[in-house]
Protein backbone atom coordinates (compact mmCIF):
# COMPACT_ATOMS: atom_id res chain seq x y z
CA UNK A 1 0.00 0.00 0.00
CA UNK A 2 1.29 3.39 -0.98
CA UNK A 3 0.55 6.09 1.58
CA UNK A 4 1.37 9.80 1.31
CA UNK A 5 1.46 12.47 3.97
CA UNK A 6 0.98 15.98 2.62
CA UNK A 7 0.04 19.34 4.07
CA UNK A 8 1.17 22.84 4.74
CA UNK A 9 4.72 23.45 5.97
CA UNK A 10 4.95 22.83 9.69
CA UNK A 11 1.54 21.12 9.92
CA UNK A 12 3.03 17.88 11.22
CA UNK A 13 3.53 15.77 8.07
CA UNK A 14 6.86 14.41 9.25
CA UNK A 15 5.68 13.82 12.79
CA UNK A 16 2.56 11.94 11.71
CA UNK A 17 4.41 10.01 8.97
CA UNK A 18 6.93 8.87 11.55
CA UNK A 19 4.25 7.83 14.02
CA UNK A 20 2.37 5.94 11.31
CA UNK A 21 5.60 4.21 10.24
CA UNK A 22 6.28 3.23 13.85
CA UNK A 23 2.73 1.92 14.12
CA UNK A 24 3.23 -0.21 11.01
CA UNK A 25 6.57 -1.50 12.23
CA UNK A 26 5.05 -2.37 15.60
CA UNK A 27 2.41 -4.48 13.86
CA UNK A 28 5.13 -6.30 11.95
CA UNK A 29 4.36 -4.85 8.52
CA UNK A 30 7.20 -4.47 6.04
CA UNK A 31 7.74 -0.76 5.40
CA UNK A 32 9.73 1.38 3.03
CA UNK A 33 9.71 4.93 4.40
CA UNK A 34 10.55 7.72 1.96
CA UNK A 35 11.48 11.26 2.90
CA UNK A 36 10.46 13.40 -0.08
CA UNK A 37 9.76 16.56 1.86
CA UNK A 38 11.53 19.82 1.17
CA UNK A 39 12.64 19.80 4.78
CA UNK A 40 14.32 16.43 5.22
CA UNK A 41 13.39 15.50 8.77
CA UNK A 42 11.94 12.02 8.57
CA UNK A 43 15.17 10.31 9.59
CA UNK A 44 15.42 12.46 12.71
CA UNK A 45 11.74 11.87 13.51
CA UNK A 46 12.45 8.13 13.32
CA UNK A 47 15.24 8.53 15.83
CA UNK A 48 18.37 9.01 13.74
CA UNK A 49 21.05 11.27 15.16
CA UNK A 50 21.76 14.38 13.07
CA UNK A 51 24.99 12.90 11.66
CA UNK A 52 23.22 9.66 10.73
CA UNK A 53 20.37 11.55 9.06
CA UNK A 54 22.82 13.72 7.15
CA UNK A 55 24.65 10.60 5.95
CA UNK A 56 21.54 9.06 4.37
CA UNK A 57 22.13 8.27 0.71
CA UNK A 58 20.23 10.65 -1.58
CA UNK A 59 17.91 9.11 -4.18
CA UNK A 60 18.35 12.25 -6.27
CA UNK A 61 22.05 11.42 -6.62
CA UNK A 62 21.27 7.84 -7.73
CA UNK A 63 18.92 8.67 -10.60
CA UNK A 64 21.11 7.09 -13.30
CA UNK A 65 21.28 3.83 -11.34
CA UNK A 66 17.53 3.91 -10.62
CA UNK A 67 16.70 4.50 -14.28
CA UNK A 68 19.11 1.89 -15.56
CA UNK A 69 17.75 -0.73 -13.17
CA UNK A 70 14.05 -0.03 -13.81
CA UNK A 71 14.51 0.14 -17.56
CA UNK A 72 15.75 -3.45 -17.52
CA UNK A 73 15.26 -4.95 -20.96
CA UNK A 74 12.36 -2.74 -22.00
CA UNK A 75 12.96 -2.21 -25.74
CA UNK A 76 10.82 0.94 -25.79
CA UNK A 77 13.30 2.78 -23.58
CA UNK A 78 16.42 3.32 -25.65
CA UNK A 79 18.61 4.48 -22.79
CA UNK A 80 18.46 5.72 -19.23
CA UNK A 81 19.08 9.20 -20.63
CA UNK A 82 15.70 9.19 -22.32
CA UNK A 83 13.93 8.10 -19.17
CA UNK A 84 12.12 10.92 -17.42
CA UNK A 85 10.34 10.83 -14.08
CA UNK A 86 7.05 9.84 -15.71
CA UNK A 87 8.40 7.15 -18.08
CA UNK A 88 6.05 4.23 -17.41
CA UNK A 89 7.07 0.59 -17.09
CA UNK A 90 6.35 -1.77 -19.96
CA UNK A 91 7.19 -5.26 -21.04
CA UNK A 92 10.82 -5.91 -20.07
CA UNK A 93 10.93 -3.29 -17.30
CA UNK A 94 11.99 -4.32 -13.83
CA UNK A 95 9.35 -3.95 -11.16
CA UNK A 96 9.93 -3.24 -7.49
CA UNK A 97 8.56 -5.01 -4.45
CA UNK A 98 8.47 -3.77 -0.88
CA UNK A 99 10.00 -7.03 0.35
CA UNK A 100 12.93 -7.55 -1.93
CA UNK A 101 16.62 -6.95 -2.19
CA UNK A 102 17.51 -4.95 -5.26
CA UNK A 103 20.22 -2.52 -6.38
CA UNK A 104 17.97 0.48 -5.71
CA UNK A 105 17.51 -0.43 -2.05
CA UNK A 106 21.21 -1.31 -1.87
CA UNK A 107 22.13 2.16 -3.10
CA UNK A 108 19.41 4.28 -1.53
CA UNK A 109 17.90 2.59 1.51
CA UNK A 110 19.17 2.32 5.02
CA UNK A 111 17.78 -0.29 7.40
CA UNK A 112 16.40 1.32 10.52
CA UNK A 113 15.38 -0.51 13.64
CA UNK A 114 12.23 0.68 15.34
CA UNK A 115 10.37 -0.83 18.29
CA UNK A 116 8.92 -3.98 16.80
CA UNK A 117 10.71 -4.24 13.48
CA UNK A 118 13.24 -3.04 10.97
CA UNK A 119 12.15 -0.78 8.14
CA UNK A 120 13.91 0.62 5.09
CA UNK A 121 14.42 4.37 5.01
CA UNK A 122 15.03 6.25 1.79
CA UNK A 123 15.44 9.99 1.24
CA UNK A 124 15.36 12.19 -1.85
CA UNK A 125 18.23 14.22 -0.42
CA UNK A 126 18.21 17.78 0.82
CA UNK A 127 16.72 20.50 -1.32
CA UNK A 128 18.66 23.68 -1.65
CA UNK A 129 17.26 27.09 -2.39
CA UNK A 130 18.32 26.77 -6.02
CA UNK A 131 16.55 23.38 -6.39
CA UNK A 132 13.10 24.75 -5.77
CA UNK A 133 11.06 25.19 -8.90
CA UNK A 134 13.80 23.97 -11.21
CA UNK A 135 14.92 20.71 -12.73
CA UNK A 136 16.87 19.39 -9.72
CA UNK A 137 13.86 19.56 -7.49
CA UNK A 138 11.89 17.70 -10.11
CA UNK A 139 14.54 15.06 -10.50
CA UNK A 140 14.84 14.50 -6.77
CA UNK A 141 11.14 13.87 -6.35
CA UNK A 142 11.17 12.24 -9.78
CA UNK A 143 13.27 9.41 -8.37
CA UNK A 144 10.43 8.62 -5.99
CA UNK A 145 7.82 8.87 -8.72
CA UNK A 146 9.75 6.44 -10.93
CA UNK A 147 9.94 3.95 -8.09
CA UNK A 148 6.22 4.27 -7.30
CA UNK A 149 5.35 3.73 -10.96
CA UNK A 150 7.36 0.51 -10.98
CA UNK A 151 6.14 -0.78 -7.63
CA UNK A 152 3.82 -3.74 -7.22
CA UNK A 153 2.73 -3.76 -3.63
CA UNK A 154 0.32 -6.01 -1.80
CA UNK A 155 -2.13 -5.24 0.97
CA UNK A 156 0.14 -6.14 3.86
CA UNK A 157 3.21 -4.13 2.88
CA UNK A 158 3.71 -0.39 2.86
CA UNK A 159 5.50 2.49 1.25
CA UNK A 160 5.00 5.67 3.29
CA UNK A 161 6.05 8.96 1.72
CA UNK A 162 6.49 12.19 3.66
CA UNK A 163 6.08 14.86 0.99
CA UNK A 164 5.33 18.45 0.22
CA UNK A 165 2.01 19.42 -1.32
CA UNK A 166 3.94 21.33 -3.95
CA UNK A 167 2.90 22.18 -7.48
CA UNK A 168 5.36 19.64 -8.88
CA UNK A 169 3.38 16.74 -7.47
CA UNK A 170 0.37 17.98 -9.45
CA UNK A 171 2.26 18.56 -12.70
CA UNK A 172 3.89 15.16 -12.72
CA UNK A 173 1.02 13.08 -11.43
CA UNK A 174 2.81 12.14 -8.23
CA UNK A 175 -0.34 12.95 -6.25
CA UNK A 176 -2.22 10.16 -8.04
CA UNK A 177 0.30 7.46 -7.09
CA UNK A 178 -1.09 6.61 -3.66
CA UNK A 179 -3.76 4.32 -2.29
CA UNK A 180 -4.32 6.84 0.47
CA UNK A 181 -3.25 10.43 0.96
CA UNK A 182 -3.33 11.80 4.48
CA UNK A 183 -3.56 15.55 4.40
CA UNK A 184 -2.32 16.90 7.70
CA UNK A 185 -4.08 20.12 8.68
CA UNK A 186 -3.91 22.35 11.69
CA UNK A 187 -7.24 23.93 12.68
CA UNK A 188 -6.46 27.26 11.04
CA UNK A 189 -7.48 28.90 7.78
CA UNK A 190 -4.00 28.43 6.39
CA UNK A 191 -4.04 24.83 7.55
CA UNK A 192 -7.09 24.00 5.49
CA UNK A 193 -6.14 26.08 2.44
CA UNK A 194 -3.78 23.37 1.19
CA UNK A 195 -6.65 20.92 1.58
CA UNK A 196 -8.83 22.90 -0.81
CA UNK A 197 -6.11 23.03 -3.46
CA UNK A 198 -5.37 19.33 -3.10
CA UNK A 199 -9.02 18.39 -3.17
CA UNK A 200 -9.49 20.20 -6.44
CA UNK A 201 -6.64 18.36 -8.15
CA UNK A 202 -7.62 15.08 -6.56
CA UNK A 203 -11.27 15.16 -7.61
CA UNK A 204 -10.67 14.42 -11.29
CA UNK A 205 -8.33 11.52 -10.59
CA UNK A 206 -10.20 9.60 -7.95
CA UNK A 207 -7.51 10.23 -5.33
CA UNK A 208 -8.46 8.92 -1.89
CA UNK A 209 -7.88 11.82 0.46
CA UNK A 210 -8.40 11.96 4.23
CA UNK A 211 -7.72 14.91 6.49
CA UNK A 212 -5.88 14.29 9.73
CA UNK A 213 -6.30 17.25 12.05
CA UNK A 214 -3.14 17.95 14.02
CA UNK A 215 -2.34 20.08 17.07
CA UNK A 216 -6.03 20.00 17.88
CA UNK A 217 -6.73 21.37 21.33
CA UNK A 218 -10.44 21.10 21.93
CA UNK A 219 -13.95 20.77 20.58
CA UNK A 220 -13.81 24.17 18.93
CA UNK A 221 -10.81 22.99 16.86
CA UNK A 222 -12.62 19.81 15.88
CA UNK A 223 -15.77 21.77 14.95
CA UNK A 224 -13.72 24.17 12.83
CA UNK A 225 -12.08 21.35 10.87
CA UNK A 226 -15.40 19.55 10.44
CA UNK A 227 -16.97 22.73 9.14
CA UNK A 228 -14.11 23.35 6.69
CA UNK A 229 -13.48 19.85 5.33
CA UNK A 230 -16.68 17.98 6.16
CA UNK A 231 -16.61 14.22 5.94
CA UNK A 232 -13.04 14.25 4.68
CA UNK A 233 -11.99 14.73 8.31
CA UNK A 234 -10.89 11.26 9.37
CA UNK A 235 -9.42 11.82 12.80
CA UNK A 236 -7.67 14.43 14.92
CA UNK A 237 -4.47 14.32 16.91
CA UNK A 238 -3.71 16.54 19.87
CA UNK A 239 -0.46 17.72 21.35
CA UNK A 240 1.71 14.73 22.17
CA UNK A 241 4.10 14.71 25.09
CA UNK A 242 5.59 11.55 23.56
CA UNK A 243 6.50 13.52 20.43
CA UNK A 244 7.89 16.32 22.55
CA UNK A 245 10.07 13.89 24.52
CA UNK A 246 11.31 12.42 21.24
CA UNK A 247 12.23 15.88 20.06
CA UNK A 248 14.25 16.35 23.20
CA UNK A 249 16.27 13.34 22.17
CA UNK A 250 14.72 11.09 24.80
CA UNK A 251 12.54 8.77 22.76
CA UNK A 252 10.22 6.72 24.97
CA UNK A 253 9.22 3.20 23.88
CA UNK A 254 6.57 3.41 21.19
CA UNK A 255 4.03 1.55 23.31
CA UNK A 256 4.07 4.54 25.67
CA UNK A 257 2.51 6.81 23.03
CA UNK A 258 -0.70 8.36 24.42
CA UNK A 259 -3.67 6.06 23.98
CA UNK A 260 -5.73 8.66 22.09
CA UNK A 261 -2.91 9.02 19.57
CA UNK A 262 -2.54 5.26 19.29
CA UNK A 263 -6.23 5.08 18.48
CA UNK A 264 -5.83 7.79 15.87
CA UNK A 265 -3.07 5.74 14.23
CA UNK A 266 -5.28 2.66 14.26
CA UNK A 267 -8.05 4.66 12.58
CA UNK A 268 -5.60 5.82 9.93
CA UNK A 269 -4.41 2.27 9.40
CA UNK A 270 -7.99 1.07 8.97
CA UNK A 271 -8.67 3.82 6.41
CA UNK A 272 -5.51 2.97 4.49
CA UNK A 273 -6.29 -0.72 4.55
CA UNK A 274 -9.88 -0.18 3.39
CA UNK A 275 -8.61 1.76 0.37
CA UNK A 276 -7.23 -1.52 -0.98
CA UNK A 277 -10.72 -2.37 -2.16
CA UNK A 278 -10.67 0.72 -4.40
CA UNK A 279 -7.49 -0.28 -6.15
CA UNK A 280 -7.68 -0.38 -9.88
CA UNK A 281 -4.40 -1.25 -11.61
CA UNK A 282 -5.77 -0.40 -15.03
CA UNK A 283 -6.70 3.09 -13.93
CA UNK A 284 -3.35 3.39 -12.14
CA UNK A 285 -1.51 2.50 -15.35
CA UNK A 286 -3.74 4.75 -17.45
CA UNK A 287 -3.02 7.71 -15.20
CA UNK A 288 0.73 7.23 -15.36
CA UNK A 289 0.51 7.12 -19.16
CA UNK A 290 -1.64 10.26 -19.13
CA UNK A 291 0.90 12.20 -17.09
CA UNK A 292 3.79 10.81 -19.11
CA UNK A 293 2.28 12.02 -22.37
CA UNK A 294 1.65 15.39 -20.79
CA UNK A 295 5.22 15.73 -19.48
CA UNK A 296 6.68 14.42 -22.73
CA UNK A 297 4.84 17.05 -24.74
CA UNK A 298 5.45 19.94 -22.36
CA UNK A 299 9.21 19.46 -21.78
CA UNK A 300 10.44 15.86 -22.02
CA UNK A 301 10.60 15.51 -25.81
CA UNK A 302 12.49 18.73 -26.13
CA UNK A 303 14.86 17.88 -23.29
CA UNK A 304 15.73 14.41 -24.60
CA UNK A 305 15.38 14.96 -28.34
CA UNK A 306 13.16 11.88 -28.62
CA UNK A 307 9.43 11.27 -28.95
CA UNK A 308 8.80 9.97 -25.46
CA UNK A 309 5.22 8.95 -26.24
CA UNK A 310 6.86 5.95 -27.95
CA UNK A 311 7.89 4.71 -24.51
CA UNK A 312 4.30 3.79 -23.73
CA UNK A 313 3.66 0.07 -24.02
CA UNK A 314 -0.02 -0.07 -24.99
CA UNK A 315 -0.49 -3.65 -23.80
CA UNK A 316 1.12 -3.28 -20.40
CA UNK A 317 -0.85 -3.09 -17.17
CA UNK A 318 1.00 -2.86 -13.89
CA UNK A 319 -0.42 -5.37 -11.42
CA UNK A 320 0.36 -7.51 -8.43
CA UNK A 321 2.17 -10.71 -9.16
CA UNK A 322 2.06 -13.71 -6.87
CA UNK A 323 5.26 -14.00 -4.82
CA UNK A 324 5.98 -17.42 -6.32
CA UNK A 325 6.01 -15.99 -9.84
CA UNK A 326 8.48 -13.22 -9.05
CA UNK A 327 11.77 -13.04 -10.80
CA UNK A 328 14.41 -12.20 -8.24
CA UNK A 329 16.61 -9.18 -8.85
CA UNK A 330 19.69 -11.31 -9.33
CA UNK A 331 18.18 -13.63 -11.92
CA UNK A 332 16.52 -10.85 -13.92
CA UNK A 333 18.22 -10.00 -17.19
CA UNK A 334 20.97 -7.46 -16.84
CA UNK A 335 20.66 -4.19 -18.72
CA UNK A 336 22.75 -3.93 -21.84
N1 LIG B 1 0.89 16.20 17.65
C1 LIG B 1 2.01 16.85 17.97
N2 LIG B 1 2.42 16.93 19.26
C2 LIG B 1 3.53 17.61 19.61
N3 LIG B 1 4.33 18.22 18.71
C3 LIG B 1 3.99 18.17 17.42
C4 LIG B 1 2.83 17.47 16.97
N4 LIG B 1 2.75 17.58 15.65
C5 LIG B 1 3.82 18.29 15.25
N5 LIG B 1 4.56 18.66 16.32
C6 LIG B 1 5.77 19.48 16.28
O1 LIG B 1 5.57 20.57 15.37
C7 LIG B 1 6.73 20.80 14.60
C8 LIG B 1 6.43 20.68 13.12
O2 LIG B 1 6.07 19.34 12.85
P1 LIG B 1 6.64 18.55 11.58
O3 LIG B 1 8.08 18.78 11.44
O4 LIG B 1 6.14 17.18 11.72
O5 LIG B 1 5.83 19.31 10.44
P2 LIG B 1 6.04 19.22 8.86
O6 LIG B 1 4.70 19.45 8.27
O7 LIG B 1 6.76 18.00 8.49
O8 LIG B 1 6.95 20.49 8.65
P3 LIG B 1 7.88 20.89 7.40
O9 LIG B 1 6.96 21.48 6.42
O10 LIG B 1 8.83 21.84 8.00
O11 LIG B 1 8.50 19.61 6.91
C9 LIG B 1 7.77 19.80 15.07
O12 LIG B 1 8.60 20.41 16.02
C10 LIG B 1 6.94 18.70 15.71
O13 LIG B 1 7.60 18.01 16.68
MG1 LIG C 1 8.49 17.71 7.38
From TrEMBL:
Superkingdom assignment: Bacteria
Keyword Nucleotide-binding part of the UniProt annotation: yes
InterPro entries named in the record: CobQ/CobB/MinD/ParA_Nub-bd_dom (IPR002586), P-loop_NTPase (IPR027417), ParA/MinD_ATPase (IPR050625)
Pfam short name (any one): CbiA
This protein's UniProt keywords: ATP-binding, Nucleotide-binding
Molecular functions (GO terms): ATP binding
Keyword flag Protein biosynthesis: no
UniProt domain CobQ/CobB/MinD/ParA nucleotide binding: residue ranges: 7-330
Name recorded for this polypeptide: ATP-binding protein
